[in-house]
Design brief:
The complex is a heterodimer. Chain A contains seven helices and no strands. Chain A is mainly alpha-helical. Chain B is elongated. Classes of the chains: A mainly alpha, B alpha/beta. At the A-B interface, helix 2, helix 4 and helix 6 of A face helix 2, helix 4, helix 6, helix 7 and helix 8 of B.
């Protein structure tokens, strides 16, 4: 094991413990690691952005001068006019192109992928497969009642009340399932970090963390006791 | 110490494996790694097993692999690190050559727009690869222009809908290495046959590792997962039961008071 590995083990474990210290209480250690995480991430994104700009735009631009890339780069440069308030209006062109293209791609995909294909794939309600029929009926009822729940132009009274109520129950089932899988995924995130705290040099960091928390608990208890004594009967 | 709790391989993981195995000899695979650093602890092990599987098929049957990232830049770094630290040292690139058997296109910012571009005109959005080599100078990419040249589309990360919107209806199988957080979102796609197969978070990764034999961290984490789930169930059940008991006894005593 090299000195660098020892240092990495200790550093990683210390950062994890500092981040997780929020579970105990907010502290300077947590705030420090929060800033380190954000700073590192933005530093990385800056590097990744510049690297992508260099490899995907500057290299091809200066090698072959493709006209479409020249136009797109020019539009991209317009975005930077926002930096100077007096001449920021051309940035709207860049934003409009970006928003327009993104919306066109997303909406086209949504109409064909999420609406037409899902509806056509829904299948028959009266086919030979009873389970499939039931699923199709439940899907249709769930969609209809959930959409009605979000109808705000009419008060949920009369017939609309029980129907929208059914939609609400469907949503509760859906969100419950999502929360269940969310818990499962978040457990994975924690499990993934734990080996770094209980193996290698990381375990020494964990021992120090436990001691620090124990001392802090004792000191807090003593302070509380002293405060109570000073306050008097 | 491992508890040795049994791990049942579900049909979902089996389908995922079978879909990859069904790629014809010499077929091209587009794999978009849109994982963030955060999801790597959950899905990284499955991603490594997947790369090992794909590269071993490239060795045996001449599969061509195209790697890209469209969401955050994290995926590019994770792909590059996996290939450098796991695939090359593991001997999975023996007999293979970069540019002839696999290509890393790197980060193609734009996410959904880039996903569309990858299946309509690769050259329009990726003029160079991750290392800055012009795509026209890469031998493998000469025959890969759009979805018609691909045999399989795949992605990993948090999201489903963005990929489904751009990749379904193209007549190609689509697989997803998915965080358990968003598995519920994948249900409509898989139920209607638009998504061919997916791996359900770390559990799915462990199942896939069991099928392929490339065992990694996901397999090791399964005991901890199972215990954590028991704890999760207890956390849900115990307070709910206590609440119900309190509710029922409270009503009874209230009725008793009335009498």
């Amino acid at each position: 094991m090299t000195e660098f590995t020892v240092f990495t083990d200790l550093l990683v474990a210390a950062l994890i413990v500092m981040a997780w210290s929020l579970v105990y209480r907010e502290s300077a250690a947590y705030r420090l690691v929060e800033h380190i995480a954000l700073g590192t991430f933005f530093g990385f994104m800056l590097y990744a952005g510049l690297n992508t700009l260099y490899t995907k735009t500057i290299i091809p631009l200066f090698e072959t001068w493709p006209i479409d890339l020249v136009i797109v780069t020019a539009i991209g440069i317009l975005m930077w006019t926002r930096v100077v308030p007096k001449v920021q209006w051309p940035s709207r062109i860049a934003i409009a192109v970006l928003a327009g293209v993104s919306m066109a791609v997303a909406v086209t995909g949504a109409v064909s992928g999420q609406i037409i294909q899902l509806i056509t794939a829904m299948g028959s309600w009266t086919g030979p497969n009873l389970k499939a029929n039931l699923e199709s009926i439940i899907s249709a009822v769930a969609t209809f009642t959930t959409v009605l729940f979000f109808t705000y132009t009419r008060e949920h009274k009369g017939v609309l009340f029980p129907i929208s109520r059914i939609g609400r129950y469907f949503m509760m089932i859906g969100f419950g399932a999502i929360m269940g899988t969310f818990l499962m995924a978040n457990v994975s995130f924690s499990i993934g970090q734990i080996p770094k705290l209980v193996t290698g040099y990381g375990r020494y960091v964990s021992i120090v963390a436990v001691i620090v928390i124990a001392v802090d608990l004792l000191l807090n208890k003593r302070r509380a006791k002293e405060k109570a004594q000073h306050a008097g009967p | 110490m491992p508890l040795g709790l049994p791990l049942k391989v579900t049909p979902l993981a089996q389908n995922f494996y079978k879909t990859i195995e069904a790629i014809p000899d010499g077929g091209a695979v587009l794999w978009v790694n849109d994982q963030g650093f955060a999801t790597w602890v959950e899905l990284g092990s499955g991603e490594i097993a997947l790369y090992k599987h794909l590269f071993s098929l490239a060795q045996k049957r001449g599969l061509r692999l195209v790697f890209a990232t469209t969401s955050s830049a994290d995926g590019t770094v994770l792909t590059d690190r996996t290939i450098r630290e796991e695939i090359i040292p593991g001997g999975f690139t023996k007999g293979l050559k970069y540019g002839e058997n696999w290509v890393q296109l790197g980060w193609l910012p734009g996410w959904e727009t880039s996903l569309r571009g990858l299946v309509t005109d690769v050259r329009a959005i990726a003029r160079t690869d991750y290392f800055g080599t012009p795509i026209d100078q890469i031998p493998m990419m000469k025959n890969i222009n759009s979805v018609k040249d691909l045999s399989l589309l795949g992605n990993s990360g948090y999201y489903v809908d963005e990929y489904g919107r751009q990749w379904t209806g193209l007549g190609k199988p689509w697989i997803d290495l998915l965080s358990a957080t968003t598995v519920a979102m994948a249900k409509p796609w898989i139920e209607k046959g638009l998504l061919t197969a997916y791996l359900n978070g770390q559990r799915g990764c462990a199942e896939y590792e069991a099928i392929t034999g490339y065992r990694g961290f996901a397999t090791a984490a399964m005991d901890a997962q199972s215990l954590a789930h028991v704890l999760g169930i207890l956390i849900l059940l115990v307070p709910s039961t206590l609440y119900l008991v309190k509710l029922v006894t409270g009503r009874k005593s209230a009725n008793g008071d009335k009498k």
